[in-house]
Amino acid sequence: MTGETTAIMDQIGHLQRSLNALKASLAENWARESVPSGPFEVFICRARDERFGLPIEAVEEVLPMCALTEYPQGPPWLSGVLNLRGEMIPVVDVAARIERTRRPIHLNDFIVVLETGNKRFGLVFQEVFRIHTVDGAEVQAPVRDVPEALYVIGMIEVDKHPLFLLSIACLLGTSDIPEDLL
Question: What is the pLDDT of residue 179?
Fold first, then answer.
């Protein structure tokens, strides 16, 4: 093997180890977040053409889209930083996170402000619906071969639409958001 081939093989090995570490981290996050066995409330929002349920106890408020401060060299799904009554919080675009790309923010989007684990952050959705009670016994395991599967802990049908229960830990835990923001 030439030196260049060896270097490429070393890079592939490094990437494989990083991928395995990421998979282990996701598995830990999924294990920490579980669907309650009985009834629980979720806040239903839309990103892309899918509906997502957020744990209602994490939702603080919903804001219309507003000016965000760009975070230099942040990942493409980090829409920016929101100055919310003097506190700077990161804002992640859920659709962009799932698609792993940047998406233009629109004035008719919404920011759902959440707090979990003493961390506050915003999630961008294209539409917000309502609070809905779901039965944990009816929640199914997510299909793991769809793009949103990395960020979902369960699925259920609500009003004849599939509802993906969003894993906040997985959405943020693998988002490359700088530690100083979280």
Answer: 61
